[in-house]
Structures are given as structure tokens and as C-alpha cells.
Design goal:
Blueprint: E1 21-23, E2 28-31, H1 33-40, E3 45-51, E4 56-62, E5 69-71, E6 73-75, E7 81-85, H2 87-93, E8 101-103, E9 106-108, E10 113-117
Antiparallel strand pairs: 1-2, 1-8, 2-7, 3-4, 3-5, 4-10, 6-7, 9-10
């Protein structure tokens, strides 16, 4: 019987995750690491905007605290997800969130905003 040597192939790299933002029922906005790296790199705070006619939320990254900015927190075991508390925005505009909404964000370069369509 002839033996054949087994050589394990190199493990393939994980497929990169697409940028995804989730708007949770309680008003939290959860940003995955791909979206943070692509659009918000280095931001520690977020200014929130809302367009009621098109039902879009805008996130403007800030590298410093401003009077109207909300703290962007790294969460999870690996600190690879980022959250911002948008509950005041949701309550102010009366946005109805029946369940978690998963959105593929779009970058608006003229406004310097990450747009989320609700």
C-alpha cells in the first residue's frame, strides 16, 4: 500500500463583512466594524441629523466632543461594534420603530454624513 502525504492547505481568509448599521427598537444605533472603518474612522462622537420628508437619519462623524454630539462607544467582547444613543432623536421626531432595522448605509459626501434610510 502506497502512502500519500497529506499537506493542509492554507486557511482562506474570512470574507470581509459589508458595512451594516442597525437601528434598534430602543433608539440605539449599532454600527459594525466595516461601516466604522469605511466611513467613521477615528470618530469618537457623532452628530445626528434627520430628514423627515425622506425618513433618513444622518450621522456626522466628529473626532472631538461638540455641544450637540453624542458619544460613540465601542461595545462587545472584541470592541468591534460601535453604538450611539439616538433615543433623544427618535423621541423628538416621533420615529416609530416596531423592530430592529438593518440598513446598508450610504455616504453623502456633500453633507459629510452617513445616511440611513428608515
Amino acid at each position: 500500500m502506497a502512502f500519500e502525504k497529506f499537506v493542509q492547505k492554507k486557511k482562506s481568509r474570512a470574507v470581509p463583512k459589508p458595512p451594516v448599521v442597525k437601528v434598534l427598537k430602543g433608539g440605539q444605533i449599532s454600527i459594525n466594524s466595516a461601516a466604522y472603518e469605511q466611513y467613521l474612522k477615528g470618530a469618537t462622537h457623532i452628530e445626528l441629523y434627520y430628514d423627515s420628508s425622506s425618513r433618513k437619519v444622518g450621522l456626522q462623524p466628529k473626532k472631538y466632543k461638540t455641544k450637540s454630539a453624542f458619544k460613540l462607544r465601542a461595545v462587545g467582547k472584541t470592541k468591534s461594534t460601535y453604538r450611539v444613543n439616538a433615543k433623544p432623536l427618535v423621541e423628538h421626531y416621533g420615529i416609530k420603530l416596531g423592530a430592529k432595522i438593518t440598513v446598508t448605509p450610504a455616504w453623502n459626501s456633500s453633507e459629510n454624513l452617513l445616511e440611513l434610510s428608515l
